[in-house]
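[Meeting: bench + compute handoff]

Bench side (C.D.) handed over the final construct sequence. Compute side (W.E.) agreed to return the predicted structure before the next meeting so the bench team could plan truncations. Sequence as handed over:
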Amino acid sequence: MKRRNYSFMLAIFLLVFTACEEDELIIPDENRTFGIRHDRSLAEYEALVTSTNKNLPDFSSVFSFQYSLDGSNNQEFTATGTLIDDNWILTAGHNFFVSDEQDSPAPIRGITILQGNDPNTPDASYEVAELVFHPTWLVADDFFNGNDLCLVKLKTPITDITPATLFTKSNESLGDLVWFCGFGDYSKLDGQDIDLLSKKHASENRLDRKVNGITTTFSGINYEGGLLAFDFDHPLGSINTLGDEIINEEEQLLGAGNSTAEALDFEGTTVQGDSGGPLFLKDGNTWKVAGVLSGGVSDPVAEHEDGSYGDISVFARVSQHIDWIRSVVR
């Protein structure tokens, strides 16, 4: 039996008690977090986007959108997108609409695209020339249809950033390592300034689900779509929503698959503001954009808090939309 130093323990207790006479005592809860592992800092996830590690994707092609839904300068919304051509950014279609009202997109005069890792001090900003939504998004706007996509045309080309390459094959494999990058709102975390926009950050995961054969139709033309998804595993292996026996209605739409309970070093999930961000998957030696963030599964575990362990992120599958993307980006 190990001997405990009770004098040392008492001293620590008195120190904590004294420090908390004026401030509330906060006890870390290993089952509660927001977007990132509870045992890592947000700064560590932000540092990944500037890492020189050649095993990581190049995150420089990931941009932030700031926009208003009424075209004003009061840009209260944030979204994420990926430069895939000098003149085009790929993002999610739902970004530019009021929730559940997909008939009046945000005016392009109220949209600004910001380049760099810190949207509070961007390297450059760009104006939008045109929004091109997936043909069936306005008539079948449930992101489980796998068509939640929008191509954003720039007024001026971006020539100092290498565009990301798209994943064109249909051989995405469950269990493959994937990386996500976005500008989601982390103001809920301790130490964050709620008056500032969150910086670019990245996280890793394992591909847990892949859905084929989702068909939507517009003007008599059928469009094939698909989905990709991953869950946010607890570091202790105690929460693995796409590997447990509890499957709600939305999880059923993701089909069958396997999910390891092992959390990765930079395991994470997606949060509000990440929408439209890229899911990078390696094709040979090249990281390519395989998915575009659409949303997440509702209530994947009992008493679930958004952004915490058990979250399930769902992506529109890029490989199923290559023909449409190429028809727009010429």
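W.E. noted at the follow-up: The radius of gyration is 21 Å. C.D. will use this when planning the next construct.
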